[in-house]
């Protein structure tokens, strides 16, 4: 990947002597950035553009070309790529559009250029992209015009499916925090994709922060695995979140697990920060460019009482804490300002400080306190006062204090628009437009810090359980009439999760015999592959006390089910011992098209979809992640014991989540599974699965993470 960013010679196919042709912006950008390598324009006719000779073909150049930029009509791209291959060029950027984004003809062209690239071992970025930028090598090949001040050298690298987002990011970061390192606009990503570039940027010494703007995932599971290895912060801005699932959700889990919910859970699990807006993406980069916070206790300091209160409110909303400053420190601050004050607290009102040297002393004292993890600072432009330091000098000292103490200071500067813009351009230390933005930046740091600290216990060895379950699964696949609810219960039971496995009765007489054997009261449920949610069609009868009640329930249920459900196949009824006690929960899993096996936990029962109180993780999960899933749902406090009730057996629940996640990895054929409800009992008494359903596919998911187990 490095060759895309550090070429010593670049050829541009599609050049013209006509100064107004958009293709010539690539040449203009290279000259504007003062690219030190050789530039070779190639066009239909010989001529000159910006002092450079235009060649008619690559063959004419007779020099090594490190990077070819292609901007000819789509139909001509295959010929240019063949010519490049014959000339020994193995890196290309295809800016041209009109490929797999534009119908059948374009799709065929896309297939053709992919085949040509494979034949000649050419790696290419695009098509339908803006190309690459590298501030370190002065490479800049987008067709949109750029200026030197928009591509300052910095520490952030951006990989984007949208050229506009790359342009906006480069410009904004060059104005607001020093600049960018690299930008790669990957467009249709027919060859090089975000994963190729992510692996490179993780190792790139010039890149300290990585941003991915994505409209689709090339391979969500691989992104997850790569990101977990990164020691650099990764920010993902994922759009196109309203796309509908191509398949109808059959289980509660699949209905609740939207593409975006799964993506959000996977990114967080991998330690990736997620931005939801362009502005948020920029603010996150700024937040991560200063020393990282150690805890969540803040000092809010402002030259305005109102802004100080806004900062405190924002900290509370974002679940940050206000540091407890010592009485001695507060008295010292109160005696330092022009207006001597006795009632200084945190937030610290700096309204009486008009000398910015005094402000620096106070900021340094506060940040040095062990109980302070970071500062949100809001001040007026010192140009307004007779201060010893200029605003830029003051901000340089703020940056120095932050780096020396190794704690973050997020600064909001109150100023007119034009002076503020000039200060931002001249200052490499990030500034924030509002006090809320400054506190948000600290919350971003705290979120990232918590991601870094997560411990992971090893997965349990479940080879014996897997072997047993494989036998059950193979038998079920051989018998087309095997009930999927029974299969679900038997498989999870094989993996050590306690289940009230039902017995199948094909008629009333068999139901009587089974009920006598297991003992009344019993539960009776319809068994049919055509009925997924039994309660919805009257297919469940609880608390059946005796044989007479059993006969009545059997006939009533069969009549109601046949009336309300379109069920071509009814195997009979399932009978279980009635379990009244316990809190109803749901465990589930699905195969996600981007990320593979996903596990779900939530408050269960028939109303699970109404409450939507669920959490997700990619399988497999460790014990710590299982506890995290449990704590994430809104209703988790019910499990800890409320209103005099005993706490429930959360360790058993966490263990079941881990076991189910390993089952999902071991059986890539499983597309959906619901264990709903499970009954969780008091601490030390475990849990039991009382119902389940499962769907399997003959085309199993290719498991890229199985080797980790």
From TrEMBL:
<dbReference type="InterPro" id="IPR003781">
    <property type="entry name" value="CoA-bd"/>
</dbReference>
<keyword id="KW-0436">Ligase</keyword>
<keyword id="KW-0547">Nucleotide-binding</keyword>
<protein>
    <recommendedName>
        <fullName>CoA-binding domain-containing protein</fullName>
    </recommendedName>
</protein>
<comment type="similarity">
    <text>In the N-terminal section; belongs to the acetate CoA ligase alpha subunit family.</text>
</comment>
<dbReference type="InterPro" id="IPR051538">
    <property type="entry name" value="Acyl-CoA_Synth/Transferase"/>
</dbReference>
<dbReference type="InterPro" id="IPR013815">
    <property type="entry name" value="ATP_grasp_subdomain_1"/>
</dbReference>
<dbReference type="Pfam" id="PF13549">
    <property type="entry name" value="ATP-grasp_5"/>
</dbReference>
<dbReference type="Pfam" id="PF13607">
    <property type="entry name" value="Succ_CoA_lig"/>
</dbReference>
<dbReference type="InterPro" id="IPR036291">
    <property type="entry name" value="NAD(P)-bd_dom_sf"/>
</dbReference>
<dbReference type="Pfam" id="PF13380">
    <property type="entry name" value="CoA_binding_2"/>
</dbReference>
<dbReference type="InterPro" id="IPR032875">
    <property type="entry name" value="Succ_CoA_lig_flav_dom"/>
</dbReference>
<dbReference type="GO" id="GO:0016874">
    <property type="term" value="F:ligase activity"/>
</dbReference>
<feature type="domain" description="CoA-binding">
    <location>
        <begin position="4"/>
        <end position="99"/>
    </location>
</feature>
<dbReference type="GO" id="GO:0005524">
    <property type="term" value="F:ATP binding"/>
</dbReference>
<keyword id="KW-0067">ATP-binding</keyword>
<dbReference type="InterPro" id="IPR016102">
    <property type="entry name" value="Succinyl-CoA_synth-like"/>
</dbReference>
